[in-house]
# Entry
Amino acid sequence: MVSVFDGALPPSVFGEMKDEIAVLRLSRPDKRNALDDTMIAGIEAFFDRLPAEAKAVLIHAQGEHFSAGLDLSELTIRQTPEAIAHSRNWHRVFKLIEFGQVPVVAVMHGAVVGGGLELAASCHVRVAERSVYYALPEGSRGIFVGGGGSVRISRIIGTSRMMEMMMTGRTYDAEQGLGFGLSHYLVEDGTGFDKGLELARRVAANAPMTNFALMHALPRIAESDPDAGFMMEALMSAVASTEPEAQARLEAFLAKRAPKVLRS
# Structure
């Protein structure tokens, strides 16, 4: 791998390219990859500087844990407006992931807790190793989620389960998280990166307009009233299917030059 992010990122965040996949590594293992303002700024810088050739992103972490959440030393005594601005900054940066240029695959292991789970929830495809455990301990800390979790995580697992996690401090394991949708794939320990890279390459092979529609249109369609959703779907379908690349792929399929859909 050759880094194209030299000098642009802090030491706690490392970026590099592997062919068409941009790889972001959380690199603060001594703090269990707890997220501080410097790391959030590094994540922002990484996504702001994605090379034009990047067609997907893979996020993973160094050490024994994906992320133990917000570095609580960041929660110094603030006035309310400052605390709001801090949370809104996380919202802005994680939105670069969810509604960014290319799809993002997260590979998780160990602790995926609090802000770490909020980061993972902003990604489009999530791979969990068996060592993963999930928790939202904000209730016991006297605080509330601030990185978009009340929107993203509650959409994934439901408001009731998120409320229970925060109220009781309950921890869920990798198998349970797979059942809830916190991950889409569950793999053996030590194999997550390879699986994530495989998936990122598969996603990168899609037509760019299709990936754009899935990232930007589908979530908004799901939140629309049915009539507006149907209209947006029709418009997006028309735009995607009339792209030159889509026409070429359809012609290849009709000419039996394209691979058939098979069971994974």
Summary: The chain is about 45% helix and 15% strand. The CA atoms of residues 65 and 117 lie 12 Å apart. The chain has a mean pLDDT of 93.
